[in-house]
Amino acid sequence: NACSASKDALHAFLVGRSGPPAAPTLRVDAPVAVAGANRTLVDALARLEPYGAGHPQPRLRLVGARITRTRTVGEHHLRLSLLGQDGGRLEAIAFRSVATPLAAAIAEAQSLPSLQLAGRLVADRYRGGEACELQLDDIAVDR
Q1: pLDDT tens across 38-97, in order?
Q2: Is the peptide bond before 50 cis (omega within 30 degrees of 0)?
């Protein structure tokens, strides 16, 4: 059909003109070592509130981390235990991530010695509020 052929030709033309799609980027506000991701930092970040549409909660880049344990929480979430090259320990949670590309990246990264993880550092209210955790957005190999 002529309409379908025109549509295919237009699509091919536009793809040829635009080039390959750009790699998605993730805005990160600051790097932090695992030992530095602690309740003191959570409290300091809380002083920046309120967060909202024009003022999002800071996203941190955790550097020099290794995954020591991964487990499923509920049906859809992954919890990670992290160990930093600096000896620091931290828990992370990846909400609604089971059976997603993020879960696949986490599985591949478990054997790697140094990772970067991006997310928001929050008080872990589940364990009495003294601990903190990283709400994980993404993971990458530390290069």
Answers
A1: 999 999 999 988 888 888 899 999 999 999 999 999 999 999 999 999 999 999 999 999
A2: yes
Euclidean distance between CA atoms 119 and 51, whole angstroms? 15
Kindly state the DSSP code that residue 110 receives in the 8-state scheme: T
| CA atoms of 125 and 115, how far apart (whole Å) | 26
**d(Cα 33, Cα 58) in Å, to the nearest integer?**
15
Query: Model confidence over 14-35: pLDDT tens digits?
Result: 777 766 666 678 889 999 999 9
